[in-house]
Design goal:
With 739 residues, this protein is mainly alpha-helical. 63% of the residues lie in helices and 5% in strands. It has 34 helices and 7 strands. Strands 2-3-4-1-5 form a 5-stranded parallel beta sheet, with helices on one face. The chain has a two-stranded antiparallel ribbon with strand order 6-7. α9 packs across α11 and α27 runs parallel beside α29.
Length: 739
C-alpha cells in the first residue's frame, strides 16, 4: 500500500512495538496493520488511535512508564552513608512481624541529587537479584517547567498496560484502576520509582499493597503525611564528595593539581550536587581554564558564572517557588533580605508585618518545601545558594517601598527588643530618647536578666548583621543607636572587639548626620572598650573628647558617667589622686541629679583609687555605702561588680571570711543574670581567697571551673582571662600540695 512500494523489514516491525518508542509514524502504523492482515475497520481504529496519541503528546499526554530503570549516571559520586541508610531501612522491613509494602521517600531541595540516589539504589538491588520481576519508573512532574503534575489516573493506565492488561479492560475511574493495579502486581517482586512527586495524594493511588514490592519516591516537598514510609532527607555534598565529582568529570590530574581551589569551588557552589556537576562540566568544556580561574568567576558572579541552563540551580529553584502560594512566595523573597545567618518566627513576622502565628505557619510550609533548613528547633536558615536566589526574587518581586519597609521593620524590631533586653539586664543604663519609626510587631518581654541574656546570645550574629546593615544604609537614627543598644550584651559577654568595631561604625554615622549627642555616647563607649582592651592612651583620648561634648551640651549625667570611666584610666596609669577627684565629682553630680545609678557607680569606681593609695578601710566603706544604693532589685550585674570589689578589698585587709562571702554573692548574682564574665571573676576571687587561706586543692578546683566558663566566652576578655589563669602563680603554687 506504500507509494512507492517499500519493504517493511523485520527490525522495523519489531521496533514498532517497543515501549521505549517516543513517536509513532502514522503511515507506518497503517501499513503494518494492513500487512498483518487486519480488516479495513480495524485499520481505521489503529489510524484513529495513532491520531489520538499524537494529539495527546502535543498537549503533554499520558506519562511514559518504562519497564526498565533509567541508566544511572557514570559520574555518580559519594553518598555512601545515604546509600547504606536506605539499604538498611529497606532490609529492616524483611524482619517485620506484619509484612507491609516497603516505601522509602527521599526528600530534599532542588538539585541535591534525589533522583540519582533513588536510581542508584534501585539498580543495586536489581543487580543482587531482588525485585527482578518488574521495574517501573515514572516522572510524576511534581515540579516541571512546561507541564503540570502527572495525573495518577493516567499513570495507572500506563502501569496496567505495562502489566499486560488489554486497553479495553482498563477501568475508567482512578479508584478502580488503583484497585486493579494492586491486584495485578500483588506477589510480584517489583520495584517502582515514583520520581519528582508533587504530594502524598499523587503517590497513594500508585502504591501497591504487596510486601514483595518496593516503592522509592523522590520529592522536593516533605512527604510526612505518607503513611508507613521511611523518610530520608538528602543533604548537600560534603567537600570531599564534591571534589570527587570534580575529579571524575573534569579530570583527576587537573583537580589534584589545585586542591585548595577545588575545595573553594565546591564551597562556592554551596556543595549542591547540581551546581558542582555544572562546575565540573564547565571545567571539562574549558580545558584552558585553571580551577583558580573558575573559583574567581564563581566568587564574583555566583553560580551565574556556570552559564545559563534549563537544568541549572536557578531553574531548579524556580520550579520549587512556582509551586508556592502567594503568601509563601512573598515571605520567601522578604526573608532573602535578612542579613543575618538565621531567623525565627518573630524575625519573619517583623519583616513581613504578619502575626507571629502566621509567620510560624508559613515558615513551616517553606521548610516542608525544602526551601529552608532547620538545624535548631524554631530557628530557620537558607542554603547559601537559596539565600542568594531569594534575594534575587526579592529584587524582582518586591517594590522599592516593600523592600525598604521590610528592612526598616527588621532593624527597628531588633533595636526595640534589644533595648528591652538591655533594660532587663542593666536597669540603670541610659540611652537618648528614640524618635524613629516604631515597628508593627511589639518587642519581646523578658522576665529575668538570664532570659534576656539567653535571647541576646542566640541572636548575637543577627544583631551584629542588622547593626552593620543600619550603619551601611545611612539610616540616620538606627545607624548610631543600634551599636549603642547592642553594646549592652557585648559588655556582659566581654566581647570588646566587636563592641569597638560597632561603636566606630556608629560614630562615623553620627558624625555624618551631625548628631553631637550620639557622638558623645559613642565616644564614651569607645573609651570603655579601649580601657578593657588595655589600650589606655586611646581610652583616655576618647573619654576626654566625650567629656568635652558632655559639658558643651550640658549633659551632666553623661559627664558623671564619663568621669567614672576615667577613674579606671587614672588609677591604672598611676594617677590615683586624679582618679579619686574625678570619682568625687561624679558622686557630687549624681547626688545633685538624684540619680542613684550615677552616684553608686562613681562610689564603686573610687574604691580602686583608695586601694592604690593604701586606704583599704575607706575603700570598703565606700563600697558598702554603694551596696545600699543597689538594694532595689533588678540590676544584679552591677551589684555583682560591687560585691567583687568588696571581696577584693577584704583580701587586701586580710579578712578572708568576709571576702569569701562577698565573692560567693557575686557568683550567685552572676549565675542568676547569666553573666559569664561575672561568674569567672567571682570564681577567680574565691580561688584567690582559698590560696590565701592555704586551701590549695580547693583553689585549683575553682580555677578549673573558671577556665571551663572561659571556654564558653567570646571576645578579647576571654583570651585575657585564659592567659591570666594559665600563669604559674595561678595554676601552681610553691607548696608541695599544689605542686
Amino acid at each position: 500500500m506504500r507509494r512507492p512500494p517499500e519493504t517493511v523489514s523485520q527490525s522495523t516491525l519489531a521496533e514498532m512495538f517497543q515501549p521505549r518508542r517516543r513517536r509513532l509514524n502514522q503511515d507506518l502504523v497503517v501499513a503494518i496493520t494492513r500487512a498483518l492482515g487486519l480488516a479495513e475497520p480495524d485499520v481505521a481504529r489503529w489510524r484513529a488511535a495513532c491520531i489520538r496519541v499524537h494529539a495527546a503528546a502535543k498537549s503533554g499526554g499520558p506519562v511514559g512508564v518504562l519497564r526498565q530503570l533509567p541508566a544511572h549516571l557514570a559520574s555518580f559520586t559519594g553518598r555512601e552513608a545515604e546509600l547504606a541508610r536506605l539499604r538498611n531501612a529497606i532490609a529492616a522491613h524483611d524482619g517485620n512481624a506484619v509484612p507491609t509494602v516497603v516505601i522509602s521517600a527521599i526528600e530534599g531541595m532542588g538539585g541535591v541529587g534525589k533522583t540519582q540516589l533513588a536510581v542508584r539504589v534501585a539498580h543495586a538491588l536489581v543487580r543482587e537479584g531482588r525485585y527482578a520481576d518488574l521495574q517501573l519508573f515514572v516522572n510524576l512532574r511534581g515540579f516541571d517547567a512546561e507541564q503540570g503534575p502527572a495525573d495518577p489516573s493516567e499513570v495507572l493506565d500506563t502501569f496496567l498496560r505495562a502489566l499486560g492488561v488489554p486497553a479495553q479492560q482498563i477501568p475508567a475511574g482512578r479508584n478502580e484502576r488503583a484497585t486493579m493495579f494492586r491486584d495485578r502486581i500483588h506477589g510480584q517482586h517489583a520495584i517502582i520509582v515514583l520520581d519528582n512527586a508533587a504530594d502524598e495524594d499523587q503517590i497513594r493511588p500508585l502504591t501497591p499493597a504487596s510486601p514483595t514490592c518496593l516503592v522509592l519516591v523522590t520529592s522536593r516537598r516533605s512527604l510526612i503525611g505518607l503513611e508507613h514510609a521511611d523518610l530520608h532527607v538528602l543533604d548537600v555534598f560534603t567537600v570531599a564528595e564534591g571534589i570527587a565529582l570534580l575529579r571524575r568529570v573534569a579530570g583527576a590530574d587537573r583537580v589534584d593539581a589545585e586542591p585548595a581551589a577545588a575545595a573553594a569551588i565546591v564551597e562556592a557552589c554551596g556543595r549542591l550536587p547540581l551546581a558542582v556537576a555544572l562546575a565540573a562540566s564547565r571545567l571539562r568544556s574549558r580545558p584552558t581554564w585553571t580551577l583558580a580561574h573558575l573559583e574567581t568567576r564563581l566568587r564574583a558572579g555566583g553560580t551565574a558564572a556556570l552559564g545559563q541552563t534549563r537544568r541549572g540551580p536557578r531553574a531548579a529553584f524556580d520550579l520549587s517557588v512556582q509551586g508556592l502560594d502567594p503568601p509563601e512566595r512573598r515571605l520567601f523573597g522578604i526573608l532573602g533580605l535578612n542579613p543575618g545567618p538565621d531567623f525565627c518566627a518573630h524575625t519573619a513576622a517583623a519583616m513581613a508585618e504578619l502575626s507571629v502565628a502566621e509567620a510560624a505557619s508559613t515558615l513551616e510550609r517553606l521548610l516542608d518545601e525544602h526551601l529552608l533548613e532547620q538545624r535548631v528547633a524554631d530557628r530557620f536558615e537558607f542554603h547559601d545558594l537559596l539565600r542568594a536566589y531569594a534575594a534575587e526574587r526579592a529584587g524582582d518581586d518586591l517594590s522599592g517601598g516593600e523592600h525598604d519597609n521590610a528592612l526598616r521593620q527588621l532593624m527597628t524590631w531588633y533595636m526595640t527588643t534589644m533595648d528591652a533586653a538591655g533594660r532587663t539586664m542593666k536597669p540603670g543604663r541610659s540611652l537618648p530618647e528614640y524618635r524613629g519609626d516604631v515597628p508593627r510587631l511589639a518587642a519581646l518581654d523578658f522576665d529575668s536578666p538570664a532570659a534576656a541574656a539567653a535571647w541576646c546570645e542566640r541572636e548575637l550574629a543577627n544583631l551584629v548583621a542588622v547593626t552593620d546593615l543600619a550603619v551601611a544604609s545611612d539610616t540616620a537614627v538606627l545607624g548610631w543607636r543600634l551599636p549603642l543598644t547592642v553594646s549592652t550584651f557585648l559588655g556582659v559577654s566581654a566581647n570588646w572587639r566587636e563592641w569597638e568595631r560597632l561603636h566606630l561604625r556608629g560614630l562615623d554615622c553620627a558624625q555624618r548626620t551631625g548628631d553631637t549627642a550620639a557622638q558623645m555616647k559613642l565616644l564614651s563607649g569607645l573609651g570603655i572598650s579601649s580601657e578593657r582592651l588595655g589600650e589606655l592612651d586611646a581610652a583616655e583620648s576618647y573619654l576626654e573628647e566625650a567629656l568635652g561634648l558632655a559639658r558643651k551640651l550640658g549633659e551632666q549625667r553623661t559627664e558623671a558617667s564619663v568621669l567614672s570611666n576615667l577613674v579606671a584610666i587614672y588609677s591604672r596609669s598611676g594617677r590615683a589622686e586624679l582618679g579619686l577627684a574625678a570619682a568625687d565629682r561624679a558622686v557630687e553630680i549624681g547626688r545633685g541629679l538624684g540619680d542613684v545609678h550615677v552616684e553608686r557607680t562613681a562610689m564603686q569606681n573610687s574604691s580602686s583609687c583608695l586601694l592604690i593609695l593604701k586606704r583599704p578601710a575607706e575603700a570598703r566603706a565606700r563600697l558598702l555605702e554603694a551596696v545600699e544604693l543597689y538594694r532595689a532589685p533588678g540590676d544584679e550585674i552591677s551589684l555583682g561588680l560591687v560585691m567583687g570589689n568588696i571581696g577584693f578589698t577584704n583580701i587586701a585587709l586580710g579578712q578572708y571570711e568576709e571576702a569569701d562571702r562577698a565573692y560567693r554573692q557575686y557568683l550567685e548574682l552572676g549565675r542568676y543574670s547569666n553573666d559569664l564574665h561575672g561568674q569567672t571573676e567571682a570564681l577567680c576571687g574565691l580561688a584567690s581567697v582559698r590560696k590565701a587561706m592555704g586551701k590549695t586543692a580547693e583553689a585549683r578546683s575553682l580555677y578549673e571551673e573558671a577556665l571551663f566558663i572561659c571556654d564558653q566566652m567570646a571576645g578579647q576578655e576571654a583570651v585575657r582571662l585564659r592567659e591570666r589563669l594559665a600563669t604559674p602563680d595561678l595554676t601552681h603554687d610553691s607548696d608541695d600540695e599544689l605542686s
